[in-house]
Amino acid sequence: SVIAITDILAGKYPVDESITIHGWIRTRRDSKAGISFLAIHDGSCFDAIQAIAPNNLANYQTDVLKLTTGAAVKVTGTLVQSPGKGQSFEVQAEQVEVLGLVEDPDTYPMAAKRHSIEYLREQAHLRPRTNIGGAVTRVRNTLAQAVHRFLHSKGYLWIATPLITGSDCEGAGEMFRVSTLDMENLPRNEQGKVDYNQDFFGKETFLTVSGQLNVETYCCALSKVYTFGPTFRAENSNTSRHLAEFWMIEPEIAFADLSDAADLAEEMLKYVLQAVLDERPDDLAFFEQRVDKTVIERLKSVINNDFVRLDYTDAITILENSGKKFENKVSWGVDLNSEHERYLAEEHFNGPVVLQNYPKDIKSFYMRLNDDGKTVAAMDILAPGIGEIIGGSQREERLEILDKRLAEMNLDADDYSWYRDLRRYGTVPHSGFGLGFERLVAYATGMQNVRDVIPFPRTPNNASF
Ligand code: 4AD
Ligand code: MG
């Protein structure tokens, strides 16, 4: 099988023996003495391995000198300890086989130079070949594997919740419709409204904004569960933190209150960030150098300090007394904007903050009403540099109060009959949260825009590729 370059550089293969590597040319440099130095990478780690091709190779003139950035090769030769600094091993090539040349190197979009992040976004199909594209991809993978590993080690079951749904979990009306109706000729009922009875599912359906309501059903049977999958929001916000299609991790815990959920969230964030420090030092060194000088220091500080826990009401007091001129004024009852969240996490506390017990009117119907009758057991976790990274709550497990909340929010209890059943048959206190995966990847890398940490970003007016 093909040998990964990361394993060679890690010293897993004996020196002075023959080895075959496969990969793409990052750079080629020719010495006056008639030797070509090929930096070859395969995505398995940040570094490339150097292959040294002498001009006495039979195909030196015809092939080796045609190799340019992006060309694919198979090189066989002797593995040797490298004398160059910063290099551990290199290959003295005896055979260089060209698998694929780059047509017209002058116009190759990923030529070896620094490209702007915006330019790379427009080349999403070639972006993974760049240093930054590869590093983001490996860190994203480490985070995803670490999330599953952490939750599995704690006994959580991974539940597949549907992407097509009839209900709006967050009640924000930001849903993409799923329909097979003929748009040119929509069937109408007697009132002139679109007749979704004639649609594929016999009702109006959407792409899900969250797997929470569905995963609650499994929580109320199997106790510790989570979803990890794509979610969709048609919010027309052109910001560096919003995607129309993003991934979310949603643990749901039975017999647990809000502080249990906050504990799990804090432990999980620390675990997965530690995994990045342990598994991807090469990529983090790159991010620190090129993207965010403070990234490693920041990850360590998050891991080593307790998260602040603060009531919304106290946060309002802090904001009111901050002496800052916010664009959006704060007073008890208003929803916080990113300027307020950033002030709290960055300036006031300089670390992650679990903000909890929000006014009920700015939060979703399913959140548990507190004894004060004004607030709900909700939490947002705010992180410096990114703002809200997690949203969660204790769920309302009391049927009467849930029904009152549905009515208050003008939601039809009939639409939630299966959700209400959980409260009718053996109801239990339960809590959970949603961690936005792209915001987590951005946080762990220092990347400034979630569009650059998902392979094919979906944003307003952009669904290319
Ligand atoms: O706060 P949200 O809306 O919470 C929920 O969806 C709950 N049902 C979760 C739960 O309790 N199971 O979203 C959760 C997180 C946010 O904190 C944010 O990190 C991320 O999802 N998020 C987005 N990420 C990228 N693009 C968007 N448009 C996002 N909207 C939310
Ligand atoms: Mg939220």
Order of adjacent strands in the largest pleated sheet: 6-10-11-16-15-14-13-12
Q: How helical, in percent, are the residues?
A: 25-40%
Major beta-sheet overview: 8 strands, mixed
Give the bound compounds: 4-amino-1,4-dioxobutan-2-aminium adenosine-5'-monophosphate, magnesium ion
Q: Number of helical segments?
A: 12
In terms of DSSP E residues, the strand content is: 15-25%
Shape verdict:
elongated
Average per-residue pLDDT, rounded, comes to 96
Short description:
The protein has helices at 5-9, 117-121, 131-153, 212-222, 258-279, 281-290, 295-304, 312-320, 338-348, 399-408, 417-424, 437-445, and strands at 18-30, 35-41, 49-54, 72-81, 89-100, 157-158, 164-165, 177-178, 205-207, 224-232, 245-254, 308-311, 353-359, 375-383, 387-394, 430-436. The chain is of the alpha+beta class and 465 residues long. The site of magnesium ion has 3 residues, from β15.
Structure notes:
This protein has 12 helices and 16 strands. The chain has helices at residues 5-9, 117-121, 131-153, 212-222, 258-279, 281-290, 295-304, 312-320, 338-348, 399-408, 417-424, 437-445; strands spanning 18-30, 35-41, 49-54, 72-81, 89-100, 157-158, 164-165, 177-178, 205-207, 224-232, 245-254, 308-311, 353-359, 375-383, 387-394, 430-436. Helix 3 (131-153) crosses helix 5. The mean pLDDT is 96. Bound molecules: 4-amino-1,4-dioxobutan-2-aminium adenosine-5'-monophosphate and magnesium ion (MG). Magnesium ion is lined by residues 380, 388, 391. Residues 138-455 form the Aminoacyl-transfer RNA synthetases class-II family profile domain. Pfam families: tRNA-synt_2, tRNA_anti-codon. Belongs to the class-II aminoacyl-tRNA synthetase family. One of its GO terms (biological process) is asparaginyl-tRNA aminoacylation.
